[in-house]
User: Fold this.
Amino acid sequence: MKTRNVLFTVLISAVTSLAVMFGYSKFYSSPNSLNFVNSKVPANYAGFFDSNGKFAGPSDFVEAAKAAIPTVVHIKTKTNPKQISNNLPNQRGNNPFSQMFPDDLFQQFFGQSPQRMLPQRASGSGVIISSDGYIVTNNHVVAGADDITVTASTGKTYKAKVIAADPNYDLAVIKIDASNLPFLLYGNSADVQIGQWVLAIGYPLTLNATVTAGIISAKGQSLGLNSGPDGSNKYAVESYLQTDAAVNPGNSGGALINTNGQLIGINSAIASPTGYYSGYSYAIPVDIVKKVVNDLIKYGSVQRGYLGAMYVDASGMSSSEKEQAKIPESVDGVYIQDLVKDGAAAQAGIKVGDQIRKIGNANIATGPELQEQLSHFRPGDKVPVTVQRGDKLITVTATLKNNAGNYAIVKSDALEDKFGAQLQNLDAARSKSLGLEGGVIVKKINDGVLNDQTRMRDGFIITKANGKTVKNLDDLKNAIGNSNQVTISGVYPGYSEIFEYPLEFGQQ
Assistant:
């Protein structure tokens, strides 16, 4: 009897041990098994496992890469050497022999002859967005270039021209003469999720087409990189997708795609102490790209709808920063500090002290998110805006205006684009005080032929172009016509000498 009990006990122990070992191997040793015993999946993992409780696992990226690589091109630019005049107003004004010798002759004798820049070459990437050769890239890839060459993944090369660009968004559209090209389909960056797999495709470090993988690590990031033609970031728009896909110099203007091979962003920047990839890269969301590209092709400039409100982005601000900015401690988002008189916000009933919570159906928590949503609209668009006023949420409809305060479409000024400067008619009172019959003031020199080919300073007054008198902008436009070469003459206020600047517009 005693022996039977002992054998029975041993048998039970053996069966129990085998059951435990089987259960362990079944539920714990498999790398794809759940790390819990009960069958209920936590809510934050809903949809992450298959019906058998196993990890679905990521798919590979072969098909997405196959679809995208033929649509991403290598862009090479060259800036031609240009003659730069050293004739600055203060140099001429201090020249005691200015009445005896022409300035050019004086400079040749005294070692101040005109200088020439060396050719400058750079490269980046671009994305074909239509079968007839439209390509989107970064403005900083092609800005100021005299010669643009596009090389496809097949090795075929094309000459390209800039259709239009906007440095506030750091986007440009260029065009090659081709047909039946492969092109990348637009995705939807609003649907992009943090943690989502993405691929970056471009031509880094002058290598061949290169694909890297990573995830979306953040959205709505602002780095303070973009600025307008005047160098100010007052109207700059930044709301980057942040990824950890490796991006290096040369990737700028290339594609960020999802695993379906759709374009979700244009790679634009890296966060790095060395200038090379060290952790994070940034892409312009495709929802912004689509709107900007359409405007640049159709109008030559981006049609922006302005809310007419000055705000403080309180997201992430400390109590002391809020106190310094003179905003309430309870503020945690976009706080309206001031309104433009007769602007869209003021006319819609938005008040100082309101916090913007929504634009349309999109939640707004930060300044970059507000910029991103407003960049989807044009002047005249009616946009629902939800604000928090005290404890209440109020939704109003704002009819957005352009930067001039009306609803008109803003077309690119061809003359200002040609010179790369802000131009303005000289008013009658100023003309009389300077003893002139009229003229055109060069208010602000930006990137372009004046900056590249001359040492002209802001404030120069154009009085002649190709020997023809210029009293206003219409005169200047007519004097230039379609000529690629022009000599403009004029004066600086306070100087009696006439200054001449030869220009070659074909070098833009």
Remarks:
- Residues 24-38, 82-114 have pLDDT under 50 and may be disordered.
- Residues 27 and 36 are 8 Å apart (CA to CA).
- The domain at 414-507 is CATH 2.30.42.10 (Pdz3 Domain).
